[in-house]
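Predict structure. Input: TIGR04282 family arsenosugar biosynthesis glycosyltransferase, 194 residues.
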Amino acid sequence: MNTLRLVLFTRYPVPGSAKTRLIPALGADAAAAVHKRLTERTVETLKQTGKSVEIRFSGGDTNSFSSWLGNDLSYLPQVDGDLTERLLAAINPAPVIFLGSDTPDLSAHHVNAAIHALQKSDVVIGPADDGGYYLIGIAKPYPFLFENMRWSTEHVMPDTLHRLRQQKIGFELLETLHDCDRPEDLDRWPWLTS
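Output follows.
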């Protein structure tokens, strides 16, 4: 069996291109600062698991990312295209757990629970309160979980579960967490903008 990978999708915190949905409330610089803080926190959380961490990046290069997040991680540029194409390009080798950097309450406990779940189930999902997920782990490559998805909608989680049930693939659900995507989400975490 291949070694489990933790794959974090993130972008360089360039004002105007990071956390764009927060810009109307915070301005471009402060929205990028929120993204920077969230990414750093997520990386530290993933490091606590002792597993190898792979950063799939956009908006910078390997040098800028290793200067920012450290040279003890693997760095690969994201492929061009939508989220489907970016996930499919990173699907091998499995097992792999995909994460984003939008979940302030993510802890090593959640990631370790996902790692443990993948030892018993084919798929593990960390549901987000908005109908998506903050984490998805697969024991084998399952491209059908990412193809023709209605990303960034409340349909992501229900569609994913429907596909798993259709294919009779066992899965485990983790605790539901909140993502920080919209201005109204910021009230939940005052420390993000302090």
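The helical segments are 23-26, 28-47, 62-69, 83-89, 108-118, 156-166.
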